[in-house]
Amino acid sequence: METQNIEYKVKWKDEYLHYISGFANADGGTLFIGKDDNGNIVGIDNAKLLLVNLPNKAVQATGIVPEINLLTANDKEYVAIHIMRSEQPVSCNGKYYLRSGSTLQELNGAALTEFLMRKTKNAWDKQIEPDATLEDIDPEAVEYFIRAALRKNRIGQGALSDSLEKVLRNLDLMNKQGQLTNAALLLFGKNIRHWCRMATFRIGRFGASRADLIMQDEIDCPLIKMPDKIIGVLRSGYLVSPIHYEGLQRIEPLEIPEDALREMICNAIVHRDYTGTFTQMRIWADHIELWNQGTLPPDYTIDTLMQDHESYPRNTLIADAFFRVGFIEAWGRGYEKIREAFKDEQLQMPTFEQVRGGFLATIKRERFVAIQNTNGVNNGVNNGVENVVNNVANNHIQLTERQQKILKLIWANPYMTSAKMAQVAQIAYRTVQRELAAMQKLNVIRRDGTKGGRWRVTENNN
């Protein structure tokens, strides 16, 4: 049976030189000539001639000489071509191949770029940006990192008095010549988009379809501050925080287990391919989609993530900084923590898949759906607003276009503040307040609670 390291061919064809490249670029392997797909020996007639010609063909096509042995069993001759793992990328006639599972893949585009950087130990985040200087680093972001890392005891107390240059050197973010890496500029840069146009994190709230974008935010702060910034934005206008009390203490947890959500966000930042497009979070009425560019490491599958596994970060310098401040663990326990958090709160575990050249996490919004259903509201934002508009029209009341826009935001997130509505709808704050008051007077909406309360769309307007 063919495996990651074994391939069977009944007879030799020169196109099989590709397998030498594929095995060398993976973990090595053996190509048998004279065996069928099940590994049964069928023999070949020209075994000795193959022994003479193959070494030259291999050198000319790939630059390496595999070990070639002539074997005999049951009076049948067959050939075993042993290929060792290469620490340098190996091409075949100018093209690169990689053995993955029991298949051979030709590498192109972003996958080829990432492979070449990994093989040459020249990961993107370790590359030097010759035009950057310390003036491009935000000292506040570095101070944020130091204090957070000290709280986790993952950096020495002396870092508080270290110079900016020394901190960056200790993190391998600056070389001996004083040049900064891409990781330094993304983790602590004043303007990360200047160095990587797609380093931003985009959040969008959608209605009935992917074309129905209700609101959006783009976050492009230093990566070390990005997880906190993202959670803050999600709290302010995208996700709900159902309120309950434990004794006299008011508790406002996110609808999604926050530690698990933060883990997924950090994974998307640390493991993404920064030569690709931006990371995006699409929020719908019933689920959330978090997608980042970049596939799993070679030989890793979704099942691998759900089991004990080694941590294999694509961007090791960024990952190290995130580990020191406690955003991620260094032992590959992230998905176990996510599973435990959702299980503890009796929520469905998110699903994970590799799609569109990236990694997608899908999270069900069970609590938000329950809130919407309790309120007697349809899950579809557009349909719900249309129903309300028609309902008030039956009572000879017409909602203005501006009021409908505000109503749509309330429908998407009943916990949204009037200040956030003003920002998203690009309407003056005082105008939003007047429109809210007018719709309450018309009995279209009502307010439950004051600070931290929620909006409710009334079921009738009589």
Distance between the termini: 73 Å
Number of strands: 19
Radius of gyration: 29 Å
Number of discrete helical segments: 17
Which bin fits the share of residues in helices?
Answer: 25-40%
Largest sheet: 6 strands, mixed
Molecular structure report:
The protein has helices spanning 17-25, 47-62, 109-119, 139-151, 164-170, 182-188, 192-195, 226-237, 258-271, 302-305, 316-324, 334-344, 366-374, 381-394, 401-412, 418-425, 429-441; strands at residues 6-9, 29-33, 67-73, 76-83, 91-92, 95-100, 103-106, 128-129, 180-181, 201-206, 213-219, 244-246, 249-251, 279-283, 287-293, 351-355, 358-364, 445-448, 454-457. With 462 residues, it is α+β, with helices and mostly antiparallel strands. The strands form six sheets. It has a six-stranded mixed β-sheet, with helices on one face. Helix 1 packs across helix 2 (47-62), helix 8 packs across helix 9 (258-271) and helix 14 (381-394) crosses helix 15 (401-412). The radius of gyration is 29 Å and the shape is elongated. The model is unreliable at 375-380 (pLDDT under 50).
Itemize the secondary structure elements and their pairings.
Layout: E1 6-9, H1 17-25, E2 29-33, H2 47-62, E3 67-73, E4 76-83, E5 91-92, E6 95-100, E7 103-106, H3 109-119, E8 128-129, H4 139-151, H5 164-170, E9 180-181, H6 182-188, H7 192-195, E10 201-206, E11 213-219, H8 226-237, E12 244-246, E13 249-251, H9 258-271, E14 279-283, E15 287-293, H10 302-305, H11 316-324, H12 334-344, E16 351-355, E17 358-364, H13 366-374, H14 381-394, H15 401-412, H16 418-425, H17 429-441, E18 445-448, E19 454-457
Parallel strand pairs: 1-2, 10-14
Antiparallel strand pairs: 2-4, 3-4, 5-6, 6-7, 8-9, 10-11, 12-13, 14-15, 15-17, 16-17, 18-19
Helix pairs in contact: 1-2, 8-9, 9-12, 14-15, 16-17
